[in-house]
Design a protein that fits this description.
413 residues; Rossmann fold; 7-stranded mixed β-sheet; 4-stranded antiparallel β-sheet; 16 helices; 11 strands
Length: 413
């Protein structure tokens, strides 16, 4: 109630009226809005967990939403960054054929029968991810030239993984000399990496090519159909793989060429980046995020190789595959096959987006309908800050009298 003291000036009265109606009309945006929103997002995430249509029965993998705050952002996805190994393909290696001494074999005969042959492993040359592109580039070309061209081309055109086999004979004195040098390099306190690399280079030459094997790794079930669905939804797919086509991406990610690479990529409906390292995957995602200002999603299932890419994107999705669970543990959403991404984005996320939008409209509609009564009543009460309803009803309106309808519309509609 405003004071009737004549000494109170107009400015003070205006201030008191303003503050009084802030208290009365604060119900328009109440704390229940935040609580209701979080509750709806939690239940929407549970719909994803409980969906039997994205349950992968073969490996007993159930979908799991590890976050409740990204459902509405999934509805704005425009770029998907995907690895190939463990994500688009089954990652189950099946021997198909081999080429030995320029002769192609599509079957294997075990002449040894049931005889067991024991061999002793003396040394193992560790594979270095950092040096593989530089060091093996020239040696890989030697192997490619040595194998029969027809067989090599046939393996590639039939989408087989090719593994080249070579050997080198060492006598005992040569091995002992190299082994001693290798041990000294490993125990060296100065320039250890350089000495180890020199020891590797000493042994990794003068190889004789035996042949090549063709390993088949099939695409996951119906994956082309689901990729087409995503493309029809105007979602661009970037495939970042370590397979061989060239070294172009390394140079494209240099500072001078970054923007040209991005401009070219955004003009395409789909992009495939080959010979990509762990760091380059994250760099491509970051480049698109910083310059395109669009919501991005990264999906991977190749163990630790996709973790950096998943963590860099706005939303990360992990595929439970054969290569470990590092990518799955770093992701926001998890399931068993790439094809389930289509249902996640085009069904669950669409439902969540529409439900949240309707919930917000419904929430503000009911609150405006309630508070406008106080506003219109002010013209009859002289804006004395009197309420038209009982104070208990005003305090509990959002909790007891109007919470269930808006929650139901946000969860079940």
């Amino acid at each position: 109630m405003l004071s009737t003291n004549q000494q109170i000036d107009a400015l003070e009265i205006s201030l008191l009226v303003f503050l009084s109606y802030i208290i009365i009309l604060n119900i328009v945006v109440s704390i229940s809005l935040y609580v209701s929103f979080e509750f709806i997002c939690l239940l929407q995430s549970k719909w994803i967990d409980w969906d039997i249509k994205i349950y992968y029965e073969l490996n007993n993998v159930q979908a799991q939403a590890c976050t409740t705050t990204l459902n509405e952002e999934l509805g704005q996805i425009e770029n998907i960054f995907s690895d190939k190994t463990g994500t688009l393909i089954q990652n189950i290696m099946t021997f198909n054929k081999c080429s030995i001494r320029e002769k192609l074999y599509d079957y294997v005969t075990d002449e040894a029968g049931n005889e067991i042959q024991d061999t002793e492993k003396l040394k193992a040359i560790e594979f270095d991810e950092k040096e593989k592109d530089d060091y093996f580039q020239w040696y890989n070309q030697i192997l490619l030239d040595a194998i029969k061209n027809n067989d090599k081309d046939k393996f590639v055109t039939e989408d087989f993984r090719t593994l080249y086999l070579a050997y080198r004979e060492l006598n005992e004195s040569e091995y002992r000399e190299w082994s001693e040098k290798m041990n000294q390099a490993n125990t060296s306190m100065e320039k250890r990496e350089e000495k180890v690399k020199d020891a590797y280079e000493q042994i990794e030459n003068h190889f004789k090519l035996i042949g090549a094997t063709a390993i088949e790794d099939k695409l996951q079930d119906d994956i082309l159909q689901y990729i087409e669905f995503l493309a029809r939804a105007d979602i661009k797919i970037w495939v970042l793989t370590g397979d061989k086509i060239g070294q172009a991406l390394r140079y494209a990610l240099e500072n001078k060429l970054k923007m040209k690479f991005l401009e070219l990529g955004t003009m395409c409906k789909a992009v495939v980046c080959c010979r990509v390292t762990l760091l380059q995957k994250a760099q491509v995602v970051e480049l698109v995020m910083q310059n395109e200002k669009k919501i991005t999603l990264a999906i991977g299932g190749d163990g630790a190789n996709d973790v950096s890419m998943i963590q860099k994107a706005h939303i990360g999705v992990g595929i439970s595959g054969q290569e470990g669970r590092q990518a799955v543990l770093a992701s926001d959403y998890r399931f068993g096959q790439f094809r389930f991404l289509e249902r996640l984005l085009l069904v669950h996320v669409r439902w969540s987006y529409l439900r949240i939008s309707k919930f917000l409209r419904y929430f503000f509609y009911k609150n405006f309908a309630f508070t406008l009564c106080h506003f219109w009543f002010g013209f009859f009460s002289g804006f004395s800050a009197q309420t038209i309803y009982d104070p208990f009803f005003v305090a509990t309106y959002n909790v007891f009298f109007s919470s269930l309808p808006v929650l139901a519309s946000g969860v079940f509609d």
